[in-house]
Amino acid sequence: MNVNDVIQASEEAADLMGSLSHPQRLLVLCALADGEKPVSQLREELAIDQVRMSQQLMRLRADGLVESRRVGTTVYYKIARSEILLIIEALQKAFCPDPPFKLGSGGGDRGEIKETSAAALEPLPLPRRSRTKS
Predict the structure, then answer these.
(1) Neighbours of 77 (CB within 10 A)
(2) Which residues contact 98 (CB under 8 A, 6 or more apart)?
(3) Which residues sit opposite 71 in a β-bridge?
(4) Could you give the percent of the chain with pLDDT greater than 90?
(5) Rg of the chain's alpha carbons, rounded to an integer?
(6) Which one, of 80, 24, 81, 32, lies nearest residue 54 by Cα?
(7) What is the value of pTM for the model shown?
(8) Under DSSP, is residue 90 helix (H, G, I), strand (E, B) or coil?
(9) DSSP-derived 3-state class of residue 2
(10) Cα dist. 15→22, 42, 54, 65, 128 in Å?
């Protein structure tokens, strides 16, 4: 790997860390590590009010970390990038000795993520955003 590749990778990692730098966004990703969930379930599990939940989900979606789909009036969210599961798992091991949400413990639909092994993960670049604080 040449220095330009390392520079690019460090910029992408810094962008990702910026996306993860809010406690409520981390909580949402921890809850979604178990699989797809409707917004109402996320709000109930995490005790986050509707406005804050909408703000955090909008940021995660804009940063390409979650995907949504609508069924009638219900909106479901899931993790969009498989490497996020590795990061959430590492954070849980470091900071949550008994995490309330455990990877792979639920019956949620994780789509392609469910079948992905750690060895086969290929990180995708984050969409470029302006570096404004939110």
Answers:
(1) 24
(2) none
(3) 74
(4) 60
(5) 15
(6) 24
(7) 0.72
(8) helix
(9) coil
(10) 13, 25, 21, 11, 8
